[in-house]
Amino acid sequence: MLGHSLKECNPEYDGPPLFVSPLAFLCSSCGKTTEILDTKQHGYNSEISKGGENYDSNYRGTGARQAVPCPECGTSEFSMTAFCAHPHFDLIEDEPELEPRAQEYFDSFDCRGKCAACGKESSLANFELA
Questions:
Q1: Potential cystine with 67: which of 33, 76, 83, 98 (Cβ 3.0-4.6 Å)?
Q2: Span 62-69, mean pLDDT?
Q3: Burial class (CB in 10 A: 0-12, 13-18, 19+), 83
């Protein structure tokens, strides 16, 4: 995964290594980069602010992204799983015109990885988007 270190965006952060958007996956087999999440463009806060100034409640990196290292051994090859949560079913009931795009209103994102070298499982990126 490619991203920006939360520690670099917020020097006061003192927790496990986490990465902030924009995030991308870099395939270790073919070398293709796939954009996965940019909190300025994706998720609940971004969707409700369309047409106006984007609202992003998260730290967001700029410039070149870096490969996310394993917190245990430092290698950067993982089996990845990404989760988006969407508990806004009442949103669709209240505003049925949003139904075709309801999936865009997800309010949390979590990306977990299992290190290919040491097998350590960890959360690499985690955002609240509402």
A1: 76
A2: 92
A3: exposed
**For residue range 33-56, what is the model confidence (pLDDT) as tens digits?**
999 999 888 887 887 777 555 555
**Chain mean position to CA 13:** 17
How far is residue 20 from each of residues 6, 67, 90, measured CA to CA in Å? 6, 12, 29
**pLDDT of 90 higher than 70:** no
21, amino acid identity: S
- Find residue 111's DSSP bridge partners: 82, 125
Give the HSE-up count for residue 72: Cα atoms under 13 Å, Cβ half-sphere. Answer: 13
How big is the chain by its Cα radius of gyration, in Å? 16
Exposed (0-12), middle (13-18) or buried (19+): which is 3, by Cβ within 10 Å?
A: buried
What do you get for the CA distance between the two ends of the chain, in Å? 24
